[in-house]
Amino acid sequence: MGQDQTKQQIEKGLHLYQSNQTEKALQVWMRVLEKSADPAGRFRVLGCLITAHAEMGRYKDMLKGTTVSLQLNGQVSLSMGNAFLGLSIFQKALECFEKALRYAHNNDDKMLECRVCCSLGNFYAQIKDYEKALFFPCKAAELVNDYGAGWSLKYRAMSQYHMAVAYRKLGRLADAMDCCEESMKIALQHGDRPLQALCLLCFADIHLSRRDVQTAFPRYDSAMSIMTEIGNRLGQIQVLLGVAKCWMIQKELDKALESIEKAQELAEGLGNKLGLLKLHCLCERIYRTKGLQRELRDHVVKFHECVEEMELYCGMCGESIGEKNNQLQALPCSHFFHLKCLQTNGTRGCPNCRRLSVKPGYV
């Protein structure tokens, strides 16, 4: 397949993708990747595949796609970071985001820097450093204001969405609603279904935070409808966990467990360990309320297994990370710790790396 035909096929795939025929678009792009001899075309189609897989929550497929690239540039580092984040492999995700950010700074690529800042906001929101979760999308919004005159409005919409998520987690619900409404307005104008679904989820979470479950339920339903349509399984997990919390507020614990069971099936299939950790945490609360000690112990054990597997604990104090809002600090190796622990104890190198480097025979 030559250069002209490669370009035509890429455009054909984009047309299908924009028409919400994602599976057909993926098939077209995969054929280009297999048959094209044009390096620039292959690299472009690789970016299309990675983006499509990201919006559908297919993080393992994203990682397969990124290994095809012969050159690890900023875009690929960002995509790999998002994939690792979807799989709850936090150290590798942060390492990739930092590589992408260095590439953006070294090449004065403000657009890439904006996208990395949004992903870092998502990263810190997941591990519950809400100050950084807000700082990075605010930085992205500044980049849009200063340099984004010719950019797609999607960059503004994404920065506003991630700001909304952080504001909600900080309890600033009015600010969260304002940002989410602006993001949704742009998403509707441009027919951006994946972003519409995320905004609906955020709206539902805001109403949940207000304990207004009757308003939250229909927004969760609308978010689930779009996420099922576009194949975003990670989003579906988040919706189901939100619905479970609504049922718990209404003391409908069996209905909450039904939602959690569906979320667990998706999380296990996707390999999303953070989703599993969250649902085990919810199950703990439910079975403690029900007074079912055996089931309670089972989920407590599974919760701590998830924490160990994801290395979601501070290597200095030993306490888990991600249970409550805490300021965190990453070392150059991308292991992260409580900021207060680093300030109190200092460090001569990374304690986590020292443990990993100890040979079994010398333990």
Give structural notes.
This protein is an all-alpha fold and 363 residues long. It is built from 18 helices and two strands. Strands 1-2 form a two-stranded antiparallel sheet. Strand 1 and strand 2 form a beta hairpin. The N and C termini lie far apart (56 Å).
Brief synopsis:
The chain has helices at residues 3-18, 22-35, 39-55, 59-68, 74-86, 90-106, 110-126, 130-147, 153-169, 173-189, 193-209, 213-230, 233-249, 253-270, 273-290, 293-310, 339-345, 351-357, and strands at residues 328-330, 336-338. It is mainly α and 363 residues long.
Q: What is the topological layout?
A:
Blueprint lengths: L2 H16 L3 H14 L3 H17 L3 H10 L5 H13 L3 H17 L3 H17 L3 H18 L5 H17 L3 H17 L3 H17 L3 H18 L2 H17 L3 H18 L2 H18 L2 H18 L17 E3 L5 E3 H7 L5 H7 L6
The counted number of beta strands is 2
Question: Span from first to last CA?
Answer: 56 Å
Alpha carbon gyration radius: 21 Å
* Number of contiguous helices: 18
Low-confidence stretches: 67-72, 357-363
Into which percentage range does the β-strand content fall? under 5%
Strand order of the largest sheet: 1-2
Query: How much is the average pLDDT?
Result: 86
List the helices and strands in order. HHHHHHHHHHHHHHHHEEHH
The largest β sheet comes out as: 2 strands, antiparallel
Approximate shape:
globular
Structural class: mainly alpha
Estimate the helix proportion, in percent.
over 70%
